[in-house]
What we know:
It contains 3 helices and no strands. It is mainly α and 103 residues long. It has one domain. The longest helix is centred in the N-terminal third of the chain and has 43 residues, at 3-45. The termini are far apart.
Amino acid sequence: MNPTTDLTDESWETRSTQARFIGDIFTIISLLCYLSFWLAGALYSIGLRKHVLASLTGLQWLKVKGVALAMAIVGALMRSRFWKIALPVSTVMFFFIMYVMGT
Length: 103
């Protein structure tokens, strides 16, 4: 067996593991952006209208959701474990914010 081949296989596993870890970070941040929208709604409904999240406009939320969608796509490309949750949720929330802004 060639030692160079073993080293290459080992470095491939390390790179794959690192890429998956970075993808997990991207998808978790994407899901946190998703949860921030509902947290802002809860803060607004209990009367904390001056809170930073509760005072964002529709266009600002669209930007936040666009970033969340981009992060979910990057996580999916890096084969994260959570991409099957983050990508559909981010996509639906992005289009939901677009729909709300249009009405």
